Amino acid sequence: MPKEIKAIQCPKCGATQKEELRPEYFRCQNCDTEYFLDNEWLNNAAFRRFQNGDIYAIGNKSLLYKIDQINTRLSDMPADFFSRHGELAAGIAQIEFIGSEWGDGLKLVTNGGKSRIFFPTADKVFNEKRSYTAEKALAIKEAGAKTRTYFLFSKLSDDFPDEPIKLMMYTQKDNKGGPNTRPFFQKKDYTFFYGKKVISDFRQGADYVISYKDLTPGRSYYSPEILYYDNQYVLIMFKATAAASSNTIIQCQSVPDGKIMFSLPVGKKKSIDHTAYYYKNGCVLETYEAMYITDMKGKIIKEFKIIN
Q: How confident is the model at residue 158 (pLDDT cuts 50, 70, 90)?
């Protein structure tokens, strides 16, 4: 049965503006009514937007849904979504998303105890060895091959401790929905035994990169993370200063010029997860308990929960 995504509203006046008193208990900021969420609410679901635009949700590491973005529902997967692949025919005992830098994939444990990675866009199943082979093939440069643009923050450098963290924009050969890999941007001083000295922007993975640049020269980032990107925008999260207690900022930048579209300071009561999505009128920010919808000026306009 499809699950519906609805805004959390006051049962008395219907307002969505509220203060959380304790987990699942709220006070309406419009009429002061206190209310709570019953156990029909589905919490702790994991979401992932794939490069082709599809959004999937995993509940309790055992249930997979695809978001119907027109009707705003979680739709059940087709009965043969996994079983049409012989390696998965025994059924699925556990489902998780793999790290997004390794591709749009699902890490599976079958009922027979086998570990596999399934890539829905490519509709292919890999074990660890086959996945590694596919990743290595991305380093092979081919004239006219389709490319894809990615974003990563560089890492602090031991060799150059004053080198700032940079937001790097780079291109790789398109993985066509299958296994992917990534470089590690970290300025390194390589001095070889015969005396040759090489300064590199990479700790490893340079062979996979076709081109790259610092998207925002001169800007400072502390404890940064990339939440979302596409060919128009990149959405990032970072601390305002190096202090651990400093406020978190959500920032949307345009691609490829790095222009700041909005900066949204995040209150300490809102624990933004490491995932976000862009839609035509704004962004969706995910927390462990809710989702927030912003406009393109960074104003939170709606808040949502997922219920049965």
A: very high
Distance CA 47, CA 125 (A): 21
Nearest residue to 179 (alpha-carbon basis) of 102, 287, 254, 246: 102
pTM of the shown model: 0.77
User: Which residues, including other chains, have CB under 8 Å from residue 102's CB and lie 6 or more apart?
Assistant: 135, 179, 180, 181, 182
Nearest to 287 by CA among 272, 267, 300, 307: 272
Domain residue limits at 100: 44-126
Largest CA distance in the chain: 78
What is residue 189's predicted lDDT score, i.e. its pLDDT? 92
DSSP secondary structure code for residue 156 in this structure:
P
Cα–Cα distances (Å) from 266 to 8, 237, 248, 251, 270, in that order, read 19, 10, 5, 10, 7
Total structural domains within the chain: 4
Is 131 inside a domain boundary? no
Direct distance between the N- and C-terminal alpha carbons of the chain, in angstroms, rounded to an integer:
9
Residues 96-145 have pLDDT tens digits of 999 888 999 999 999 999 999 999 999 999 999 999 999 999 999 888 88
Residues 6+ apart with CB under 8 A from 237: 224, 225, 226, 227, 248, 249, 250, 251, 266, 272, 274
Q: Considering only CA atoms, give the Rg of the chain.
A: 22
Residue 82 counted as domain residue: yes
The 3 state secondary structure assigned to 238-270 is: EECCCCCCCCEEEEEEECCCCCEEEEEEECCCC
